[in-house]
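Anyone? Bumping this.
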Amino acid sequence: MSGAVLCLSGVQTRIGAYHILHGVDLTVPAGCVLMLLGRNGAGKTTCVRTIMQHWRACAGSVRFDGHDLGALTPSAVAHLGVAYVPENMGIFSDLTVRDNLLLAARSARTVAQIDRTRLARIFSHFPALERFWLTPAGSLSGGQKQMLAVARALIERRRLLLIDEPSKGLAPAIVETLITALAEARAEGTTILMVEQNLSVARRLGDHCAVMDQGRIVHQGAMAAFSADPALQARLLGFTLGSGGHSAEGMHGFAA
Amino acid sequence: MRKLAFLSNDPPKSRLLAALLAAVVAALALAPLLFPGAKALAVAAKILVFVLLVASYDLLLGYTGIVSFAHTMFFGIGAYGIAIACTVLGPSWSAIGLGLMAALTTSALLALLIGLLSLRVRAIFFAMVTLAVASATQTLASQLSAWTGGEDGLNFRVPIELSAGYRWLETPLPGLGFSVPADGRLLAYWGLFAVVSASFLILLRVVNSPFGRVLQAIRENAFRAEAIGFRTTLYRTQAVVIAALFATLAGALLALWLRYNGPDTSLSFELMLDILLMVVIGGMGTMYGAWLGSALFLLAQNYLQTALASLGQPLADLVGLLVGSDANRILVGVLSWSVELLSPQRWLLWLGILFVLSVYYFPSGIVGRLR
Amino acid sequence: MALQPDALMPSHRVPPDIAPWLLIAALAAGAFFVMASPSTWLTLTIAGLAMGLMLFIIASGLTLVFGLMDVLNFGHGVFIATGAFVATTVLGPAGFGAPGSWLLAPEPALQILAVLAAMVLAMVLTGALGFLFERVIVRPVYGQHLKQILITMGGMIVVEELIKSIWGAQAIALPLPECLRGVYLLGDAAIERFRLFAVLIGLGVLLALSQLLSRTKIGLLVRAGVQDREMVESLGYPVRRLFVAVFVAGSALAGLGGALWGLYQQTITAQIGAQVNVLIFIVIIMGGLGSVTGSLLAALLVGLMANYTGFLAPKIALFSNIGLMVAVLSWRPQGLRALASSR
């Protein structure tokens, strides 16, 4: 598919004795935001980790921008312009906010070399990061840590963002800033693959969506079409979007 | 079928291995009659002691998966128990009995303490703690010189029945081209053989019992074992105690044979490394590996040196020739160093390399390879 | 943009954890009251600090290696021994100890230079040995703790034998230059010159290490890697190479520590590594595996304790350190400075 930047075909992943991905075929068009949806345990996180090569696929291929990722280490994948925001955020609690961002800014050898404009934009989205610039990241609240995790992915321009459930447990106002910041990234031309269980976020940010179930992609298409089809939603996810949203309890913790 | 039950249904499982083991056991059993001289008997006796010591360690390392550096401590307790008892109470069987009981009790209590306190923590912590404790015990032994004889150790006499002057048969026994007086030393040796063999069979029974199987399950996956319902700490502690008791017995036997004990004889760190070498090269988790590992190690320690000397000789001659001529100094230096590597005193180097290779390539040691 | 008030402590700073420092001060103060004379106390305290800093130099590398890659090198003592032996050669008759050479020169500056040369060479050679050790011995057994313990012990046996093959099995003397022998007199207190020198070197290493770890990117990477190795890799840094670098640096530091220790003891045998090993393990367990500050605190405690009990009650010296370790672990089971790692 022309314009596709990330392409998974027939990807199968085993972790120990568990066969999690049973042949994932996924295409992410360039410059889009694709929401990866699905019930708990469907294999969404495994999918993302396989792309990042933290887990190796035992069959199939993962191609990004023409490169076969299966032959690369996670750091080599990152060098192709991929940023990964894991589910557990991966914040270095012992390091300050500044140092966390410095490590994420690969091209900067010192803090002074970090792109000022981008930093200013991050501060405008997430003022807390400026306030707690020299505070050890471990002392931040959950929401602020999440902000930091996303900020690390935005500190330099990337081709692809892999984000795993960034809005989990966040206050609605923070989720707003998240959406704005990520939309800006998309506007820059960054492709985003986002695992999300908060469907209101998915609906507002996503251009495309893919639904996973039991290690396979069971639906892929435009987000708008999916949002407009409650029957499809109910069938694939077990519930519907309703009148649109907010990250109320009803959206989370549905039966697996 | 009776034969298998004798070995607790855990036979060698390989013709070659069985033959090798039979040969080793037979050689040890008949050693006084096969090999002349005091040295041969001394080596054989040491091999027997180490068979028991290494088998008890295999229970810990091979079957339960616990790395402990405190095993020499229990060995030393057994040895000192006998040594102190015989020194203080005189060379009598009751003194030996008392010393042994005291040593076994002390070991059991210490093992219990170590097990319950440390086994809850990560393996690495446990290993380091045992290292520290063993080191401390060695220092303690040299410092409590009033009791232990300090650095010099304790020389003591043993009951008359075990000493060289005692004759239990008038006529000497027929050896291989020489005759062997039927004296107390012979009795001591065969007593040693009997106790070691019996203990080994008991250990074989332990590792093949339901208890032993739980230990192996814990070794494979402690988390799962705990989930199934086994109190892993309890099982591990029992393993530590049993291993400690047999190590203590081995120490007592050593002291009785040598009629001497000192900190270097039974408590040194070098000894702990030797045990590790024997258990890994022989084969972890096999029990039978103890016989092969100990025999190999002690034979190497005592006889490899002569072999190495003969190997190193031609090379040394070559270097001698070169030194005379105008040869490149660096080449001479490297060659002299290679000769040095092959010198008899460096036998441990080669055994160490064998040990490292075993851990990589044959974790089940010789026994594993032969199976 | 209205943000929810964030739950965070009112001050932007985390209150510094001074309890372990107080413990050190308490130990020193306690010893002061127990001892009859202030001058003895001063001598022993400086000796304790010197020993502590040497232990820190050796332990810091080991604790980082463990924190970063979850590898415990039981054979770390081998680098200590190599460093000490390299120093004997550099300062011996074949090196700067030859008649007319620097060590025996009348100018103190040249003598110090000889010692520094020995230290630098010790670091370089043990670093190289560390590189080989990591590649041949450690790399094949990542993630398998049991095998790591066995293999690194095996590696230690092999290298110890190699040391004996080069330098011989008997004890060798490590000569101190003239200007570092003897004592300074501060009132009644006799302060050994070499111990002061060791304190200076130790402080220098401490300073360099802390600057490296807090101000340079690579230092940040090491600290970050100790907490979350996978994330560091995801950010685009090859963690493998980082680990090799840390292992080599740790070995080099152990070599430096070994050289200093050898000069401190003045005679060494091939067993020097195994002897110091036990103390090092006590230090890193007490300090908290993976924490450099923790190992500094623990090393100072161990050094002071060893010297105080060495004077007051020599028989219980090693036990006192084990007792100290047990006491500290009862207070803080993860060590003085436990690291919050997301492993």
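Late reply, but here is one note on the structure posted above: Strands of chain B lie at 154-155, 173-174, 179-180, 260-261.
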